[in-house]
Design goal:
The complex is a heterodimer of chains A (412) and B (257). Chain A has a six-stranded mixed barrel with strand order 2-3-8-5-7-6. In chain A, helix 1 packs across helix 11 and helix 9 runs parallel beside helix 12. With 412 residues, chain A is α+β, with helices and mostly antiparallel strands. Chain A has 13 helices and ten strands. Chain B is α/β, with parallel strands linked by helices. Chain B has a single domain, classed as Rossmann fold, CATH 3.40.50. Chain B is built from eight helices and ten strands. In chain B, the strands form two sheets. In chain B, strands 6-7-8-3-9-10 form a six-stranded mixed β-sheet, with helices on both faces. A four-stranded antiparallel β-sheet of chain B has the order 2-1-4-5, with helices on one face. The radius of gyration of chain B is 18 Å and the shape is globular. The termini of chain B are far apart. Classes of the chains: A alpha+beta (412), B alpha/beta (257). At the A-B interface, helix 1, helix 10, helix 11 and helix 13 of A face helix 3 and helix 4 of B.
Chain lengths: 412, 257
């Protein structure tokens, strides 16, 4: 009963103190507002980057293994992979046979080359020679027209499926379907346009700036260096759960296909989305930590501002503290009065900060990347602002609570 | 609380407070200042006592001691038989809350709170329930005749009215002692006598009242005058009628108020 009354009275005092010093409170809260906006925006930006990253790799597929000569993510010395044999079309056939239909194997080869349609050109576009199985291993589908079909590969047709960005830049308002475009020196007929993948803002691979052609046509027109051109194999596992076991199986079969002795190391690499995500997460973790550290400083400075004002508040109210102590206020009553004051200031700052950060998130979303404010971030922001309030109020409040009533009463 | 409130009228012979050989020493830099150098004093319930003395005589220290705002360096002090000299800050706060009613020269009201809130505040700190504390506060405000000013801020009141609010706050918890430190010091003589009339009435109603004052005519309201000098009781005189014995005040510096 008594503590409830003391809390009520302390809240009451804190409220009237804040109302009485609106200007000062606003300036103090500003520090917290800036801090909270900075912290939330950092977290939102990190969340946005992650979304962008996931989006740009969404066509990779979580249950697909990619066998290539070199690993995708290589933090060490690149030179160690230099002398590896290329992965040939024969290897593809060998692996496909060995897996006996357990996984869908799709070989792909790519090159960067200029595109031309009438007077417009696009430079160094990623042209991928692939098969009809491409749409099985990656989660992409054509938006208009069709993808490559088995007979396109069988008859080495000069047909191309273009990415949305290519359609936009090269063809503009013209409908690209059935138009002839030049890939390098060769003429191809556009048969389909892929769905937009998006999310390549930050230098990730741009899946929209791509052209898919039949692998057979690719080899015919661009050559396969006497059967030794380097292919990358995409193998869709029977299910995501079996991915790990399947990876060992693929490695084993691939070693047989490549005729490696038991003591030899793998001369190929198996990549998957997890590898990329892992590398991304470890980099982003550090970036986010540094970001939070820097923005945390803003919040800390805001907290110091609150503490400063709380010292002023305690000094101003010294006489009042004396009166309250004389008529029976305990230390905790006085403490609570100031802790509530600092916490409320910080909470108000936090809430305003959250509102501003939400608006900022909308702007980021519209202009930069698909960022969103999660309820967790909001909850953290609220807790952090209250925590800053309590922490910055505790020393001034303790100083007020410990005042000698006689001295305090004498203070004018 | 109610038991003491009921007992207030009848227990005239009980002791309100008991000081034994109370010494208070302050450190002023390297020097030790003896504010009280051994004061022994008994004040019974429903006594009306004035404590007088020149500046530096130790009367403020004695008042702070009696009001449990301060604790003795040595000696003992008990309030209604309960020793208070070993209590910590919060225990002393509780004693002040329930057993002491302060009336200060400068009123010491909370400026942003209205009359009702100022008066009810000790009951809030004492944890009294809402209906009970509202009743007690309204009763106390009525006793000092400020019911019509219940929702006014101190700044909207005259000096006399402010002091009456302070009196209402002092008596709202039916304290053992009402401790008035120069209660008329900041008031004109007409308002001053109105305030003294209220104190007289409270005494007649069974309250123990201790006045600290410079002024003879204020001290004259009391039945017993204790005169302090140099931290010791110089004289302790009980009057049996208003114009009986009086204490020699020669050598006392003129009031600086």
């Amino acid at each position: 009963m008594r503590i409830a009354l003391e809390i009520g009275e302390s809240l009451n005092i804190a409220r009237s103190a804040i109302v009485a010093n609106k200007g000062r409170g606003t300036l103090t809260a500003l520090g917290i507002i800036i801090g909270i906006v900075a912290v939330i925006t950092t977290m939102t930006a990190a969340n946005g980057l992650e979304n962008t990253f996931k989006q740009s790799f969404s066509s990779i597929g979580a249950d697909v293994l990619y066998v290539s000569r070199t690993p995708w993510v290589n933090m060490g010395d690149f030179m160690q992979f230099r002398n590896r044999r290329n992965i040939s079309l024969a290897d593809t056939q060998g692996l496909s046979d060995a897996l006996q239909g357990r996984g869908v194997v799709n070989p792909a080869i790519n090159t960067r080359i200029n595109l031309k349609y009438e007077s417009k050109t696009m430079e160094t576009v990623n042209v991928v020679g692939t098969t009809d199985k491409q749409i099985i291993v990656s989660s992409i589908t054509p938006e208009t027209g069709r993808f490559l079909m088995p007979f396109d590969i069988k008859y080495k047709k000069n047909v191309a499926v273009i990415g949305s960005n290519v359609a936009e830049v090269l063809f503009g308002s013209v409908d690209p379907i059935d138009k002839k475009m030049k890939i390098g020196r060769y003429s191809y007929r556009v048969i389909g346009i892929m769905e937009e993948q998006g999310g390549s803002t930050f230098g990730g691979p741009n899946f929209d700036r791509r052209v898919y052609v039949p692998i057979s046509t690719f080899i015919k027109t661009f050559g396969d260096r006497g059967g030794r051109a380097n292919f990358e194999l995409a193998i869709k596992a029977p299910s995501h759960e079996e991915l790990e076991d399947f990876e060992f199986e693929v490695i084993g079969e691939m070693r047989k296909v490549r005729k490696l002795g038991p003591t030899e190391e793998d001369d190929f690499a198996v990549n998957k989305l997890d590898t990329l995500m892992g590398a991304y997460n470890s980099v982003m973790g550090v970036v986010m930590l540094i970001g939070l550290l820097i923005t945390g400083i803003a919040l800390f400075v805001g907290g110091v501002g609150v503490m400063n004002i709380m010292f002023v508040s305690v000094t101003e109210r010294t006489h009042e503290i004396g009166i309250r102590k004389a008529i029976g206020a305990r230390r905790r009553s006085i403490m609570m009065q100031f802790l509530f004051e600092s916490s409320i200031i910080c909470l108000i700052g936090g809430v305003i900060g959250i509102i501003l950060a939400s608006l900022l998130t909308l702007v980021i979303n519209a202009l930069l990347m698909p960022a969103s404010l999660s309820p967790t971030i909001l909850l953290i922001a609220v807790i952090v602002s209250i925590l800053v309030g309590v922490l910055s109020g505790i020393v001034p409040a303790w100083r007020g609570a410990r005042l000698d009533p006689i001295e305090a009463l004498r203070y004018e | 609380m109610t038991s003491r409130a009921n007992g207030l009228e009848t227990s005239h012979n009980g002791l309100a407070l008991h000081l034994e050989n109370v010494v208070k020493t302050y450190e002023m830099g390297t020097e030790q200042v003896h504010a009280l150098s051994g004061v022994s004093l008994d004040i019974g319930q429903n006594e009306y006592v004035a404590i007088m003395g020149p500046s530096g005589s130790g009367k403020s220290t004695l008042m702070n001691m009696i009001g449990c705002l301060d604790v003795p360096t040595s000696g003992s002090y008990s309030l209604e038989g309960e020793p208070v000299d070993d209590m910590d800050d919060d225990q002393l706060a509780d004693i002040r809350n329930r057993k002491i009613g302060f009336i200060f020269q400068t009123f010491n009201l909370i400026p942003r709170s209205n009359v009702f809130h100022n008066v009810v505040l000790p009951l809030i700190y004492g944890g009294v329930g809402k209906t009970e504390r509202t009743r007690l506060a309204e009763e106390a405000i009525e006793k000092v005749g400020l019911t019509s000013r219940m929702h006014h801020k101190p700044s909207e009141l005259s000096g006399g009215q402010r002091q009456r609010v302070a009196i209402a706050r002092a008596l709202v918890f039916s304290p053992s002692i009402i401790l008035a430190d120069e209660p008329t010091g900041n008031l004109d003589s007409k308002t001053g006598s109105e305030i003294m009339a209220i104190l007289d009435k409270l005494h007649a109603g069974g309250h123990t009242i201790i006045l600290v004052t410079h002024e003879d005519d204020i001290a004259d309201h009391a039945e017993r005058i204790i005169f302090l000098r140099d931290g010791l009781i110089e004289s302790d005189v009980r009057k049996h009628d208003q114009h009986g014995q009086s204490v020699s005040h020669s050598g006392r510096p003129a009031s600086n108020l």
